[in-house]
Amino acid sequence: MGGCQTVVTGLFDNRWAWCPPGRRLQYQACGGPKQEQIPRGQQSVAVQHQFMSPQGYINELVRKRNSLRVLDAGCGARASFELPTDARLIGIDISQDAAKRNQRINEIIIGDLQTYKLPSKSFDIIICCDVLEHLSRPDLALLSFFDAIKDDGIIVLELPNVFSLKGLVTKFTPHQFHVWVLRKFLNFENAGKPGFAPFPTFLRTRIAPGPLLRFGAAHQMTPIYFRLHEGPTTAKLRRNSPKSYKSYALLVRVLNYLFLRRVDFGLSDMQLVLRRDVLESER
User: Fold this and answer.
1) Which fold has domain 5-282?
2) Which residues contact 251 (CB under 8 A, 6 or more apart)?
3) What digits encode the pLDDT tens for the residues 29-61?
4) Strand boundaries in 11-169, DSSP class E
5) Beta-strand pair 69-73/123-129
6) What is the torsion angle, in degrees rounded to the nearest 10, for the CA atoms of residue 8, residue 142, residue 126 and residue 57?
7) Could you give the C-alpha distances from 233 to 130, 188, 207, 252, in angstroms and in order?
8) CA 16, CA 88: separation in Å to the nearest integer?
9) DSSP 3-state assignment of 212?
10) What are the tens digits of pLDDT across the range 219-268?
11) Which of 52, 67, 148, 183 is the most exposed place for a label (fewest CB within 10 A)?
């Protein structure tokens, strides 16, 4: 699918999670980041993309390259995106119990993303879904990704938005509370068992939307897709426990009102695709 498509996401700025009155930050795949003026109190921002999902960028790279090498960072027990059968998928996870349940992985590395030395410029695609929030030093993992990605390769990130209601509750409540929520409200019987979610969570503010985008830009990583949205956990809460979801939604509305609708606390999750820029001196 060619051309630029528009997705409406939450309002944020280049520092934290919301935008100063009258400003927005727009990321456009066909023109790079651009800052524009919008009316005071605007609560959404148009983000233009070449494709409507991260899968589209993966498919584009599949068409351009043969024999892809893909790293699934924090591979867990499921494949996050569709990949061609001839792609070599290397998975790295600190949990052997979780990694061995992923049947798609061609090669498994048991290691810590914060300390394991990945080979430089060796992967066409790096996928990291729902992992960075569990690291005390997510910046170290990101630096490793930036070094390991090939020129013009892409890094696909999915993680919670720390400045959403779900993100703040997750960050400031104990691990056992997370286990209780998954078991009681989301019907996840294996919650807390070895190799199963939830895992201990740090959710550092350095991986909030603004700091994460700025960190990538400082290391030649261009955002080509960005989206804040209601994540699957919130959607599952709405289906499984309507009364609990109504209380959650009410609190979201109250917080949005208190912050003058400059930020939508209901946008609980983030998707980001970064491409490694190649400097003219490196070509």
Assistant:
1) Rossmann fold (3.40.50)
2) 165
3) 333 343 333 233 333 334 456 788 999 999 999
4) 23-28, 32-37, 44-49, 69-73, 88-93, 107-110, 123-129, 149-160
5) parallel
6) 30
7) 12, 11, 19, 15
8) 37
9) helix
10) 999 999 999 999 999 988 999 899 999 999 999 999 999 998 888 999 99
11) 67
Residue 228 to residue 47: CA distance in whole angstroms:
10
Name the pTM for this structure. Answer: 0.82
Q: Which of 35, 38, 17, 19 is nearest to 27 (CA)?
A: 35
CA distances to 87, 123, 144, 204 from 119, in Å:
18, 9, 9, 26
Both tokens of 138, joined, read 């997510």
DSSP 151-192: EEEEEEEEEE-TTSHHHHHHHHS-HHHHHHHHHHTS--TTTT
- 108, 89 contact by CB (below 8 A): no
Say how many residues make up the chain: 283
Which strands form 269-276's sheet, in the order they lie side by side? 107-110, 88-93, 69-73, 123-129, 149-160, 269-276, 221-229
